[in-house]
Design goal:
Number of strands: 6
Shape: globular
Low-confidence stretches: none
Strand order of the largest sheet: 2-5-4-3-1-6
Number of helices: 3
Mean pLDDT: 88
Order of helices and strands: EEEEHHHEE
Distance between the termini: 14 Å
Strand content: 35-45%
Largest sheet: 6 strands, mixed
Helix content: 10-25%
Structural class: alpha+beta
């Protein structure tokens, strides 16, 4: 799989601050997310961002390169998860106010689940590409990560 690249599904994704964004995932301890770029997700990791397009297709719309990563942390609450992300990945150019973070639909769903939860988060710089529509983009695994050899970085 040397030529495979990772693609991340971001429903409603948009880079903040122009070409910068922060992404995160929360899940219950004991759940093993597959597929997931466990070993690859570190600073300089590059992947493609897939988004829903007008007309119902999905397409690759950006190339993202990680500039900061929280690889894995167990957090006892949503507030602790936010604080960890804020301390590690936010700065004067890119930050999400706590009320906006807690109001985000994904975080509201995760807040209803038992705590502690596992957290992975990363900050990226993005470069617009495409959109490139590929057949395999119609169905993503539950993790939101897909591997493909049909495109290359």
């Amino acid at each position: 799989m040397r030529n495979d690249v990772w693609i991340r599904l971001h429903s409603g994704w948009s880079p903040q601050g122009g070409n910068r964004a922060v992404a995160w995932a929360l899940w219950q301890p004991g759940y093993t997310a597959e597929p997931w770029p466990r070993d690859e997700l570190r600073p300089a990791f590059t992947y493609y961002v897939c988004e829903d397009l007008p007309g119902g297709d999905r397409g690759i719309v950006a190339r993202a390169t990680a500039t900061g990563v929280i690889r894995l942390a167990q957090v006892p609450s949503a507030d602790t998860a936010y604080r960890l992300i804020a301390d590690a990945l936010f700065d004067a150019d890119l930050a999400i106010p706590p009320e906006d973070w807690h109001a985000e639909r994904y975080n509201q769903e995760k807040a209803k689940r038992p705590w502690p939860q596992m957290l992975t988060a990363w900050r990226v710089v993005t470069e617009p590409v495409g959109p490139h529509v590929l057949p395999e983009l119609t169905a993503f695994p539950r993790t939101g990560w897909l591997r493909s050899s049909r495109i290359s970085l």
